[in-house]
Structures are given as C-alpha cells and as structure tokens.
Amino acid sequence: MSKTEKDLMDAFAGESQANRRYLAYSQRAEDEFLHGVAKLFRAIAEAETIHAIKHLRTAGKVKSTKENLEDAIAGETHEFMNMYPEMIAHAKEEGQKSAEVGFDYANKVEAVHAQLYKQALADPENFPVQDYYVCKICGYTAAKDIPDVCPVCGANSKAFFKID
C-alpha cells in the first residue's frame, strides 16, 4: 500500500469518527436544549461525511453494488462471529456490565444486518423499496413494519424511528 493509499484510509477513518462524534455531541446539546449548537454539530458532521466518502471513493473502495453488498456481508459477519464475542468476553471478564450489554446488543443486530444484506444480494434488481425502522436503544433494524417489542433489547415500538 502506498503512503497516499494509507493516508486516504486514515483520513477516511478520522472523518468517519468525527462524523459520529459530532452527532453524539449534537444529541447531547439537544438534551441540554442548546438547539443552535446542536444544529452546528449536525452541519459539520455532514461536512465530515462528505470528506469521508470522497476519501473512500478516491481509495477505490466503493465498487459495484454487488461487490459492496458482499463487502458489507463480510464485515457484518466478522463483527458478530469474531469481533463482538471477544469484546463481550473482555467486558464480562472486567466486570464492565454497560459495555457488555452494548456489545451484546450490537452483536445481535450485526447478524440481522448481514441477513438483510444477503436478501438484497440474492436479487438486487428486484429488492423492494420499503420502509426501515431502527431501534434507538440497540440499533435493531426492521423492514416494512415496526415490531411491538424490539427482539434484541425489549424496547417498545416507540423506541423505533423511520429511515427516510
């Protein structure tokens, strides 16, 4: 890998993390009724997304939809088969219950994500345009309808938000 290729991937990682961090900061500002600051964080988070996507494309990592689905399946599968089980074990070993629960939720949801991607990969041309709902507690992603109770964390249907 050339220095520029490494730099592109490092820049992608940094910009991606900045986006997520600024969105978390925006949520906190909203919780504190600082709506102007929250909006500023959201605006800059969007700018960081633009940077991240440009770096990823320049690095040649955005390919055909079929290849992108295969990559997404591989990533999600790695997370629920390898990454999160190890993290859950570490948190358990260290008595970090909050981290253990968060890792467990993410682990279960990543398996759902992999399955959704597999469905799309099976027939991308005829994959339906449908509504998706995400649980704000654990990230569970439901297609078409909101479940009465989240199958991962047990939250009620009010915990779900629609993806536009």
Secondary structure elements and pairings:
Elements: H1 3-31, H2 35-58, H3 65-93, H4 97-122, E1 132-135, E2 141-143, E3 160-163
Features:
164 residues, mainly alpha, Ferritin, Rubrerythrin, domain 2, 3-stranded antiparallel beta sheet, 3 strands
In brief:
66% of the residues lie in helices and 7% in strands.
The total beta strand count reads 3
Structural class: mainly alpha
**Average residue pLDDT:** 97
Domain module count: 3
Order of helices and strands: HHHHEEE
The radius of gyration over CA amounts to: 18 Å
Low-confidence stretches: none
Per the principal axes of the C-alpha atoms, what is the gross shape?
Answer: globular
Q: How much strand? A: 5-15%
Helix content: 55-70%
Ends apart, CA distance between termini: 37 Å
Biggest β-sheet: strands ordered side by side in the sheet: 2-1-3
**Main sheet record:** 3 strands, antiparallel
**Continuous helix count:** 4
Describe it.
There is one protein chain. The protein is mainly alpha-helical. The protein has helices at residues 3-31, 35-58, 65-93, 97-122, and strands at 132-135, 141-143, 160-163. It has 3 domains: 3-58, Ferritin, core subunit, four-helix bundle (Ferritin), CATH 1.20.1260.10; 63-127; 128-164, Rubrerythrin, domain 2, CATH 2.20.28. The mean pLDDT is 97. Helix content is 66%, strand content 7%. The chain is built from 4 helices and 3 strands, in the order H-H-H-H-E-E-E. A hairpin with a 5-residue loop joins strand 1 (132-135) and strand 2. The longest helix has 29 residues, at 3-31.
